[in-house]
Design a protein that fits this description.
The chain has 345 residues and is of the alpha+beta class. It has 11 helices and 4 strands.
Length: 345
């Protein structure tokens, strides 16, 4: 009625099969492993980093849907904000002149569509002229004869400008840089989202499925191009800001800048933490085994596993985010622990 456990027999058969297929055919096995490495190594070029809503939020996130619906109704190219806290009084010539120069330099950036500052804000209470007569010539800080004390009081007490282009204490102002709208990108995003929503509710026909696949591929290309463009824009604006640091304290902010910095942080995390773990592993292996082969072989194994993983992510199109950027360091640790176990045994 009872049968003997097949565990030992199964183990011995597995060992014999491994011995026959792997250990007796080292050249064939190495060739196969090298072929796998070359295949996935080729796809490492498709490895991508991302910090967009597509990768950080769920596809059916309620807040994301509301945001996209509003964006469809009021499309825009994004907004960058440069804050300026001058060394002198904000409404003095020593502060307004650098602000004016900054505005003109920002206007020369190709991707910047509009620049709005306290110099451009219309002032209705800083003049004794009736509002009816101001329609054709609305005063602002650049117009001659404007009372700056009244202008400061109006801006600080305005529900529109207060805490938007000027701080409550009147010491800091903001330059609002409106970026040019990316119409093709927005159109692809809207079409893709509509097809995804329909797929979730009622399903797609074969033709619509192919359309979604094509639109998604085009969107990914447009998104990658936009990320590169925004990276150059942010770098250009930071270069413009640098010489003006002698006039006060300047900071750059805005969603496009945050997105670009997050991608940079992810890339740096991969390099810094991956390199740090690698250096730590070399030190540990050297201290424990003190033989070159027991140092080189585990490191080659880690390199192989890491390359395969990066290639797989590139092949299937999964993008690494700030949340998953430590995967390489974790892989190195897990792989090296298995290697040490095998060496010791």
């Amino acid at each position: 009625m009872f049968t003997r456990a097949a565990g030992p027999d199964m183990t011995s058969r597995t060992v014999r099969a491994y011995d026959t297929l792997v250990l007796h055919n080292p050249k064939l096995v190495l060739a196969a492993l090298l072929s796998i490495l070359v295949f996935f190594g080729y796809h490492t070029k498709d490895f991508k980093l991302d910090a967009s809503a597509d990768s950080l939020l769920l596809e059916d996130d309620v807040d994301l849907k509301v945001f996209r619906k509003i964006h469809e109704r009021y499309p825009s190219g994004g907004l960058l904000v440069v804050t300026f806290t001058p060394n002198k009084d904000l409404f003095s010539d020593q502060a307004l002149e650098p602000l004016r120069q900054l505005r003109e330099e920002f206007k020369k950036v190709a991707s910047v569509d509009t620049v709005f500052t306290i110099l451009d804000a219309p002032l209705f209470k800083s003049s004794d002229v009736p509002i009816e007569e101001l329609v054709d010539d609305i005063p602002n800080l650049e117009k001659p004869g404007v009372d700056r004390a009244k202008a400061k009081d109006e801006l600080l007490n305005s529900p529109i400008y207060r805490e938007l282009i000027i701080s409550a204490d009147g010491r800091t102002t903001a330059l609002l840089l409106g970026l040019a709208e990316e119409k093709k990108y927005n159109s692809l995003l809207q079409t893709r989202n509509e097809l995804r929503a329909k797929r979730q509710k009622s399903g797609l026909s074969a033709k619509e499925t192919q359309t979604l696949k094509r639109i998604s591929a085009e969107y990914d290309q447009a998104h990658e191009a936009l990320n590169e463009k925004r990276h150059l824009d942010v770098a250009r604006i930071r270069d413009i800001i640098k010489p003006y640091q002698r006039h006060g304290v300047l900071y750059l902010g805005g969603v496009p800048m945050i997105t670009d910095d997050m991608i940079t942080f992810v890339r740096n995390d991969l390099i810094v933490f991956g390199g740090g773990v690698l250096a730590f592993l070399i030190i540990v292996l050297t201290a424990i085994f003190r033989e070159l082969r027991w140092i080189v072989l585990p490191l080659l194994s880690c390199f192989y596993a890491g390359s395969i993983m990066i290639g797989v992510l590139g092949l299937i199109g999964w993008k690494v985010t700030v949340i998953s950027s430590n995967f390489l360091a974790l892989m190195l640790i897990i792989t090296i622990s298995m290697n040490i176990h095998l060496i010791v045994r």
